[in-house]
């Protein structure tokens, strides 16, 4: 009789252990999924912040270079594309387009010494640079969260919960092809 009770206790302990292991794994996947969503939100907030700074920059440059209408239209269109983009891939492509347009706008600004010296322009450039740094940090955190999450849902025990939770692999925030050329460091020759 003692051996039957011993076996029953061991069996119950094994069942409880498996249940606890499943519960901890399940909750871990949920936390990782929420971390991916939260870090994506951080990127989105910084992209939105930059998109809100762009009209001020454009208006400041317009005051000095009103005849450069084409670049103002390009910046406005690129900004609109960024605001409308939904997925990480779409945001990355729109982000690259906006960076390119803003880069061309800033290149035009270089032709106007009085603009480069204007306090509003300098302040906006500083705010944009700070925002770019925040975007880079947020992008790194997001990609790290995606890496951890994707590994968790592909590994054991996560793979057993993926379908029941409706989880799918998350996309990395990848730099679109050609962006390197836009952000290449200019060569200065004397």
Q: What features would you describe in this structure?
A:
With 190 residues, the chain is mainly alpha-helical. The chain has a single domain (2-172), classed as de novo design (two linked rop proteins) (Up-down Bundle), CATH 1.20.1440.20. Helix content is 78%, strand content 0%.
Provide the succession of SSEs.
HHHHHHH
Instruction: Count the DSSP helices.
Output: 7
Radius of gyration: 25 Å
Query: What is the CATH superfamily?
Result: LemA-like domain
The rough form would be described as rod-shaped
How many beta-strand elements? 0
How many structural domains? 1
What are the key terms here?
78% helix, 190 residues, mainly alpha, de novo design (two linked rop proteins), rod-shaped, disordered C terminus
Question: Could you give a short description of this structure?
Answer:
With 190 residues, this protein is mainly alpha-helical.
What does the secondary structure layout of this molecule look like, with pairings?
Layout: H1 2-64, H2 69-84, H3 88-109, H4 113-116, H5 119-154, H6 162-165, H7 179-182
